[in-house]
Amino acid sequence: MAGRSGARVRRAALTLARAVGLSAALSAALAALPAVAPGRAAAEEGLTARTRIELLTLNGFDPVSYFLEGGPQAGLARFELSWGGQVWRFSSSANRAAFRDDPPAYAPRLGGYDAAGILDGRLVDADPLVFAVIDERLYLFRDARRRARFLAEPGLARQAEAAWPAVRRLQDVPPDASPDASPKVPPTDAPR
Length: 192
Known about the structure:
Helix content is 37%, strand content 16%. The protein contains 8 helices and 6 strands; from the N terminus they run H-H-H-E-E-E-H-H-H-E-E-H-H-E. The protein has a 4-stranded mixed beta sheet with strand order 1-3-2-6. A hairpin with a 2-residue loop joins strand 2 (76-83) and strand 3. Helix 1 (2-19) packs antiparallel against helix 2.
C-alpha cells in the first residue's frame, strides 16, 4: 500500500513539475522521490509525526536582566532554557542559573500580557521594553501611558493579579502550557 501511495505522489509531483515548466533535471529529481507513505518517514526515523513548537519569550530578552541595573538585555541562543512551553534566553550563564532555580520569580506576571488589558478583561499584547517591577514582580505593558498609570497606582497590579485567573482562560494555549500554570515544572535545556 505504501508503495502505491508513494508512486501516486511521485506521479503527481512529476505532472505538476511538467505543467509549470520546471527543468528536466528538477522533474527527474521529483520522479526519484522514495515511495514512502506520508508521515511514515518520520516514524521510521524514530521521530514523532507532531512537532511541538515553543515560542521565544520576551522577544529574546533576558528575564533576569529586568531586575538588574541597566534593565533588559538581549539574551543569547547559547543560554536558553525551556519552561512553561516557551523558550527563554539569557545574557549570561549566571542569569540562566538564577532563572532555572526560581522561574516564577523572574517570569513576567499575567502571562506576559499588558497588565492594563488584564484589568479590562482582555488579553493585550505587551511590548517587552515597556515594563515595571512592582512589588518585586515583572509586569509588561503595551505603551508608556498604561505603564505610568500602574506606577501611579501600585494597587492596580494587585487588581490585575486578581482578574488574571478569569482572563487567562481566553488564551489559545492549553492552561498547563502557560508559565503561570506550571511553576513546579523545572526548566530544561531548550530543544535545538
